[in-house]
Amino acid sequence: MRNDSDGNLPDVPTGPPGSTLQPIVIQPVPRKLAGYLFMSVFMALNGVWLLSLDAWSLVAWLSILLFGALTVTIAKQMLDPRPTITIDEEGIFDHANKLGLIEWDDITGAVVEGAKGLPSVRLQLRDPSKYRRRLSALTRGLWALHERRDSVWIELTGTKADAKQLVEVIEKEVRARWSARAVSL
Questions:
Q1: What is the mean pLDDT of each run of 10 residues along the chain (185 residues)?
Q2: Rounded to whole angstroms, what are the CA distances from 11 to 63, 142, 183?
Q3: Which residues pair with 25 in a beta bridge?
Q4: Closest Cα partner for 78 from 45, 44, 32?
Q5: What are phi and psi of 128, to 5 degrees?
Q6: Sheet hosting strand 2-3, strand order edge to edge
Q7: What one-character DSSP code corresponds to residue 19?
Q8: What count of other Cβ atoms lies within 10 Å of the Cβ of residue 185?
Q9: How far apart, in whole angstroms, are the C-alpha atoms of residue 175 and residue 144?
Q10: Closest Cα partner for 87 from 10, 24, 131, 26?
Q11: Residue closest to 90 by CA, chosen among 164, 21, 155
Q12: Which of 123, 89, 102 is nearest to 1 (CA)?
């Protein structure tokens, strides 16, 4: 499998099922995750400090709960040896959100989203509920607040992957597969 540690995606030959799509493996970058872990621990401890002052108790508890949960999530990700994302002939395998395999036949498009430094790719799907059922209750609840109900998100935070290049690869593969399907009809 392909592991491109500098974040650049290869020029991938694409096509319909049976094509020679070269697998792409996107690994987390331990240094980035360590930075996020440090920041989340700092913010959780800041909440503890605010609580000890008997000041801003609501903010303190929210900080402790939110950043404490984030600390646990990042620590788990750091200990998980699996790649964040794997793209191959079967589809896109998302380990980060626990979406599992997102099959090519279900993907209708991809769009770059997220702020600079916190990139994500929004996958437009024929049946997003098929994949959303795999998410934790908390993640499902947060995603339900978002206006794009036809989609799921692939998080690239903590990797060097270029979201724009990844979308180009996904779109190229989706177009090739849908074109092959149209020709065969």
A1: 44 47 86 89 93 85 89 85 88 85 92 78 87 77 64 82 90 84 62
A2: 43, 35, 25
A3: 3, 86
A4: 32
A5: -65, -25
A6: 2-3, 24-26, 85-87, 91-94, 100-103
A7: S
A8: 4
A9: 28
A10: 24
A11: 21
A12: 89
| Residues 36 and 118 sit within 8 Å (Cβ to Cβ) | no
> What letters, b where the CB count within 10 A reaches 16 and e where it falls short, cover 55-84?
eeeeebeebbeebbebbeebeebeeeeebb
**24: its two tokens:** 């792409």
Q: How far apart are CA 112 and CA 153, in angstroms?
A: 10
Count, residues in the chain: 185
Q: Quick one: tokens of 71?
A: 């600390």
Strands 85-87 and 107-113: unpaired
Token readout for 78 is 């750091």
DSSP assignment letter at 56: S
Residue 10: per-residue pLDDT = 44
Here the tokens at position 162 are: 């270029």
Residue pair 164/112 in contact (Cβ under 8 Å)? The answer is: yes
Token pair 């909440």: residue:
47
What confidence score (pLDDT) does residue 15 get?
A: 47
CA atoms of 19 and 159, how far apart (whole Å): 27
